[in-house]
């Protein structure tokens, strides 16, 4: 029976377990696992879905980075002490000008050895050059590449938005004459590239003739001789000094965090072949279509590749920092069964080098940790808290423009009503005041919460949008800035009435607290009727009465009848139908069933993950759970996403109910029901723009905290929900976690160069010793330079 179970599990997981300890030695006991010795030159991991592209200029998918961050080196890297250091590039001087709007780098070297490009067989294809950064610029801005990283570039570099607009005005393919689609695409790419190159300044060229466009400047579609005159850039986005082999990024505004962004492979150089537009079978979208069609600059090379089952990488002995690469082979499998219990099982069979012990996996939790959530007192001494990557902030995202199409014959009055009701601040305040978010969050924290009273909030409840430990100033984390601003807004205006619950202490914003449920200050700020406001204060500790008063304000703002209700559809992922979704239903049903509640929230479940992605792009839902992780070390990486025209614009559909005046730039609702929301979004946008321009880090973080307080607590554009894993989670690991970075940004966390493995699982004493040494290393590395 046991062997049959192993066979079925291996078939599900598509991971070989022949020769594993479980098969050869019987069940894996804790003592056997503690004594097991592994090969420290081979790392075994997994990926959650097949790689989507082998081009670092296309993908922004986190699973792709498990492969690409080892094949392609970023311009800068983050070391084990979370210090940003040279990667492919190194700063010239301190790397930036006085206001950090210009950042200058040269190509790095290791004792004279330069980084190189290699094909998949390991043949050298030439050194990495400063012009290869220009190649990346030309690649990501060209729409034909379908790059997912172009938005980051255009947001950062000077005149990036202008360049996007200029490209959008070029003729479409069907407007271009040609004998074939390929010929048309070559012409379109040439026109696009001519535009893009006018935003790149090349000084001290090695061969000036190379800068002359060999194509005909005059044709019936595009007059490239006019590029660079009126309407085109007043300054470059990128400057290349080809002789000195240096490059300078010119930024739209001050960006003290820009070096953290360069730890992403999205900003890595690209070889000449990627932008050889005359050869569409190897350039553009075709570059990186499979592992044989790309070049690599990283510490590893593809070895055996079958994305539907596994991908293995081997150490590149000719990599310019090969002496810092200790793991010689990376084997990544694609298990079809990726449940936490199966991942723990695959660690036991030595098919994974690292496996988290999830709070949702009761069997493994009790096997390795026992009761409680303290790894210091865990049943098995080989399990330790590990940084497993920054958990994304999951939040309730509102679709404000549900079925908003004035020309649609299918639009019903109730569709418009839903948008109008959701646009009211009181509606969103009622949801946050009356809904118990822990009902959903406890799915992820069930074992973490085992020693808490059942009424206590989930340990993984989140009350901020920007993740903690992203950026700090003089030891003060950005979330502490939010706590200070929160206390100013809600802690000091507390009425002297007994029973009033402002939750004004900023500590309430920490993970594991509930800053929203029955927060009287949040509710009071949305009650505009003076009589209702006084009734709310007089209700003291009678929360049922307070709920009824808040509901009356909702009815008044939305012009709803006394018994009228409005139903909203919450879109749930069908792949979670037996796990998270029952908890979500319980949460929404409990809220909807509150006495006299005018708001009803129904769970609309997709068939599976694919169907879920399809439905997200249709106007059939009002709410869903979204998640965001940081791209760089600045609050703007979060806060830019939720405003008018932000990254979530295609989901919150604010542009369907609110318009921006082309002359003044001011926002206005498409009808009166949306005017208040437009005003609030304008205030948020103004606060965000002010913060974006601040150079002093303390002032910058203070300004962002004001914007985040406005968005999350005063106006509640979104509702933070939970994180799915702790920032540090219990794990079984043969990786020396203190040799890899533990930062929230970039792709260096999945980069294995410089990382070491341990032959055996550490004991508690060994772990604590290494941790203490690492903490001292962090302290030393971050001491101010004399």
Automatic annotation (TrEMBL):
GO terms for cellular component: cell envelope. GO terms for biological process: peptide transport. It is found in: Cell envelope. Keywords: Signal, Transport. Residues 96-461 form the Solute-binding protein family domain. It comes from the Bacteria. The keyword Membrane does not apply. Belongs to the bacterial solute-binding protein 5 family. This is Solute-binding protein family 5 domain-containing protein. It comes from Mesoplasma lactucae ATCC 49193.
């Amino acid at each position: 029976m046991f062997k049959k179970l192993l066979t079925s599990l291996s078939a599900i997981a598509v991971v070989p377990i022949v020769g594993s300890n479980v098969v050869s030695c019987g069940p894996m006991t804790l003592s056997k696992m503690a004594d097991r010795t592994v090969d420290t030159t081979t790392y075994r991991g997994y990926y959650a879905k097949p790689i989507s592209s082998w081009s670092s200029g296309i993908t922004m998918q986190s699973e792709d980075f498990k492969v690409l961050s080892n094949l392609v080196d970023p311009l800068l890297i983050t070391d084990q002490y979370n210090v940003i250091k040279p990667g492919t590039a190194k700063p010239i001087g301190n790397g930036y000008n006085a206001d950090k709007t210009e950042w200058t780098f040269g190509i790095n070297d290791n004792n004279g050895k330069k980084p190189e490009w290699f094909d998949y067989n390991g043949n050298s294809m030439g050194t990495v050059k400063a012009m290869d950064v220009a190649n990346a610029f030309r690649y990501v801005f060209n729409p034909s590449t379908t790059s997912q990283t172009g938005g980051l570039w255009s947001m950062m570099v000077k005149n990036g938005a202008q360049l996007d607009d200029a490209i959008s005005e070029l003729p479409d393919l069907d407007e271009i004459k040609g004998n074939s689609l390929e010929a048309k695409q070559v012409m379109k790419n040439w026109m696009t590239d001519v535009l893009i190159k006018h935003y790149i300044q090349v000084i001290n060229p090695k061969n000036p003739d190379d800068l002359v466009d060999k194509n005909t400047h005059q044709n019936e579609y595009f007059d490239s001789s006019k590029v660079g005159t009126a309407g085109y850039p007043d300054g470059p986005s990128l400057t290349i000094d080809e002789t000195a082999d240096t490059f300078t990024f010119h930024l739209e505004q001050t960006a003290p965090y820009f070096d953290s962004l360069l730890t992403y492979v999205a900003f890595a150089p690209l070889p000449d072949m990627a932008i050889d537009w005359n050869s569409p079978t190897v350039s553009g979208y075709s570059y990186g279509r499979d592992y044989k069609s790309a070049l690599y600059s990283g510490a590893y090379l593809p070895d055996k590749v079958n994305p539907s089952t596994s991908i293995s990488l081997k150490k590149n002995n000719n990599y310019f920092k090969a002496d810092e690469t200790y793991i010689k082979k990376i084997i990544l499998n694609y298990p079809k069964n990726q449940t936490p219990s199966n991942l723990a099982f695959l660690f036991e069979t030595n098919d994974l080098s690292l496996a988290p012990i999830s709070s949702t996996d009761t069997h493994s939790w009790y096997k390795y940790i026992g009761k409680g959530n303290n790894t210091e007192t865990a049943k098995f001494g080989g399990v330790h808290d590990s940084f497993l990557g920054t958990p994304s902030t999951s939040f309730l995202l509102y679709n404000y423009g549900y079925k908003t199409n004035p020309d649609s014959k299918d639009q019903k009055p109730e569709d418009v009503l839903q948008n109008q009701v959701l646009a009211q601040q009181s509606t969103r305040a009622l949801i946050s005041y009356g809904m118990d978010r822990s009902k959903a969050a406890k799915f992820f924290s069930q074992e973490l919460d085992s020693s808490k009273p059942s009424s206590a909030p989930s340990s993984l409840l989140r009350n901020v949008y920007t993740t903690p430990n992203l950026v700090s100033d003089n030891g003060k984390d950005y979330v502490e800035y939010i706590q200070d601003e929160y206390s100013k807004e809600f802690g000091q205006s507390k009425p002297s009435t007994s029973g009033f619950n402002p939750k004004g202490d900023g500590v309430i914003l920490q993970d594991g607290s509930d800053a929203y449920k029955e927060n009287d200050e949040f509710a009071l700020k949305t009650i505009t009727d003076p009589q209702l406001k006084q009734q709310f204060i007089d209700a003291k500790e009678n929360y049922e009465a307070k709920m009824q008063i808040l509901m009356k304000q909702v009815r008044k703002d939305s012009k709803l009848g006394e018994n009228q209700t409005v139903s909203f559809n919450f879109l749930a992922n069908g792949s979670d139908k037996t796990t998270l979704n029952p908890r979500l239903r319980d949460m929404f049903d409990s809220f909807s069933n509150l006495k006299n509640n005018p708001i009803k929230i129904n769970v609309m479940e997709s068939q599976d993950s694919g169907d879920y992605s399809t439905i997200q792009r249709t106007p059939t839902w009002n709410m869903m759970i979204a998640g965001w992780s940081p791209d760089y070390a600045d609050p703007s990486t979060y806060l830019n996403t939720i405003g008018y025209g932000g990254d979530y614009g295609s989901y919150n559909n604010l542009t369907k109910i609110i318009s921006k005046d082309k002359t003044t730039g001011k926002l206005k609702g498409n009808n009166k029901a949306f005017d208040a929301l437009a005003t609030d979004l304008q205030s948020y946008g103004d606060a965000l723009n002010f913060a974006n321009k601040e150079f002093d880090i303390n002032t910058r973080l203070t300004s962002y905290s004001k914007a985040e307080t406005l968005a999350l607590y005063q106006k509640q554009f979104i509702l933070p929900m939970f994180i799915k894993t702790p920032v540090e989670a219990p794990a079984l690991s043969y990786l020396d976690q203190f040799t890899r970075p533990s930062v929230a940004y970039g792709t260096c966390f999945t980069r294995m160069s410089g990382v070491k493995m341990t032959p055996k699982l550490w004991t508690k004493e060994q772990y604590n010793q290494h941790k203490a040494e690492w903490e001292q290393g962090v302290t030393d590395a971050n001491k101010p330079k004399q």
